[in-house]
Design goal:
ATP binding, ABC_transporter_ATP-binding, AAA+_ATPase, binds adenosine-5'-triphosphate, six-stranded mixed sheet, 246 residues, Rossmann fold
């Protein structure tokens, strides 16, 4: 199975702080993967290096087969990235927000409309396309932001805490759409989340990050089985960090 994401000794320091510390990762193409860990563990910093937004201090990383430093623009052509902070423009409609992204990604003019309709369809926003985003719920805005990253038909989709701040119904709804997208396109999903039950339900593999290092990784089932019968991913989190999640 080819790697969607592969890192070797990937490291990032901020002054004296090593936020990401010699991380080795292998995420197969077509899988759903989550980075888990407490606040400040280094998850976002790792994701920002993989999406070419932050240069590594050391080590290597390849995304979709391209080196994040030497082939950064090729990496960007093959990925989608949805950061934590909500970023859609509230004064534009859903369609207009998507059009901006289609132009940014240089989707050729004759196929822009089809790509935008496809992205709206995947995220269940067809009926809201002509509505100003300021009238969207938090869950709809989040789905629009995922849709923005889809106009590029990414091979690897990076989602940084995509359901943070959403109520359980909206969270479920976001994940139903992401799962349908994965099933149809086999897009690799690389995400961070603080919701252990979400990681458990969705992911083929997870990695726990603590103080910049990967301390455990594997399928949720295998990680739970190591702790014994009846263990949850929350128990795994507690055993690794010594703290309850959240
Ligand atoms: N630009 C920066 N300058 C200095 N320190 C930074 C910078 N970005 C992140 N850090 C530090 O690096 C560490 C890791 O932060 P990061 O945001 O990657 O953690 P995280 O696991 O994503 O946390 P959260 O779950 O809260 O989003 C933290 O100590 C943070 O303060």
């Amino acid at each position: 199975m080819p790697a969607a994401v592969e890192t070797k000794d990937l490291t990032r320091s901020f002054g004296a702080l090593t936020a990401v510390d010699h991380v080795d990762l292998f995420v197969p193409h077509g899988s759903i993967f989550a980075l888990l860990g407490p606040n400040g563990a280094g998850k976002t910093t790792l994701m920002r290096m993989l999406t070419t937004l932050l240069p590594p201090s050391g080590g290597q990383a390849k995304v979709a087969g391209y080196d994040v430093v030497r082939e950064a623009s090729l990496v960007r052509q093959h990925i989608g990235y949805v950061p934590q902070a909500l970023s859609a423009d509230p004064d534009l409609t859903g369609y207009e927000n998507l059009l901006i992204f289609a132009k940014l990604y240089r989707v050729p003019a004759p196929i822009r409309r089809a790509r935008i309709d496809e992205a709206l369809h995947f995220m269940g926003l067809e009926e809201a396309a002509a509505t100003l985003v300021r009238h969207y719920s938090g869950g709809m805005t989040r789905r629009l932001e995922i849709a923005q990253s889809l106009v590029n038909r990414p091979q690897v989709l990076f989602l940084d805490e995509p359901t943070v701040g959403l109520d359980p119904t909206a969270r479920h709804n976001v994940w139903e759409h992401v799962r349908a997208l994965w099933q149809q396109w086999e897009t690799t999903i690389f995400m961070t989340t603080h919701y252990m039950e979400e990681a458990e339900a969705l992911c083929h593999a997870v990695a726990f990050v603590h103080q910049g290092r990967i301390v455990e990784s594997g399928s949720p089932q295998a990680l739970k089985a190591r702790l014994g019968e009846g263990a949850t991913l929350d128990d795994v989190f507690l055993s690794i960090t010594g703290e309850r999640n959240g």
